[in-house]
Known about the structure:
By secondary structure, the chain is mostly beta strands. The protein has one domain (34-377): Beta-galactosidase, Chain A, domain 5 (Distorted Sandwich), CATH 2.70.98. The chain contains 3 helices and 28 strands. The chain is globular and about 55 Å long.
Amino acid sequence: MKRIFKTIAGAAMAALCFAACSNEPALTLSGLDPQAFVGEKNGKATALYTLTNANGMEVCITNFGGRLVSVMVPDKDGNMVDVILGFDNINDYMTKSSDFGASIGRYANRIDGGKFELDGQTVVLNQNDGQNCLHGGAEGWQYQVYEAEQVDPQTLKLTMVDPDGHMGFPGTVTAVVTYKLTDDNAIDITYEGTTDKPTVLSMTNHAYFSLSGNHAVEGTDMVLYVNADTFTPANENLIPTGEMRPVEGTPFDFRTPKAIGQDINQDYDQLVLGNGYDHNWVLNTAGDITKLAVSVYSPATGILLEEYTDQPGVQVYTGNFLTGEVPGKHGIKYPMRASVCIETQLFPDSPNRPEWPTATLRPGETYTHRCIYKFSVK
């Protein structure tokens, strides 16, 4: 028995040594190599963080831009499927302009002319979308490194300190984004922010969802529901005109779930301007996070994504500017409309629209925002 024990112990030690000494990388469930996310920008280190829950769901996040990199959820057959677009290494995130999975700041969406009035002063911002400031400017938070703390296997806390004047925004803002993976297969995201000077702040998550598991094809067969009676039409620069237009009788009516592609190519003024859907819907949920705001369903996999939020609006963007030219994860090239983004938010250009929910944040106040992505199958 002693000899047998020694043989087993020796084999176990050899196996451990092989695992420890092997050059083979330990990959995530989604096939990512954490070593490929080790990098640096402005003296700050980047890494890949992995969250898992009791059901085997996996969420991978990099602190570069606070980005969701992969989200593995079960489909109707119990197979694990990655449901978001992105890259599989930090160099691509740093060198290829994208918003894939990012924690957007300082201001989500567009600000007209890259300027607004605050307390009688004109604030001039970086213009990175024609004349507009989009998603915080050319060096917005999606291109910065968050400080990361993995609180536990299901929680990641990311902190951003954005200095006064960065991209033109006033005030030093400290923002915290917390990703929590729950045991009911939900990603619960909370945002908090404070400032030392009056400023504006509106954050969001910019995940590109492709629930079919086949990211090389259009995702217009996904079935979309939006709990909204009105949306905010945009002008030729994709800036809201100020109108709140009823969705009734338009291609923007998703109160009854329908395929994204059902009406997307209609000759309708707003679809022509956006080359598809790239608009803000005014949610009926009135800030009640217990009420369903948006859902997306894939007939191919049976995966259902439900979104809940305390924000007044959601930007639905159907990947109209994806080109199919740049390789993403595992070398896949994402074609136009391969995905859908459902970005909970304050309305675009709110700093120039005092009649809309305010984006102004003052010293002593705390900005808060919560969004839940809940996955299931049907």
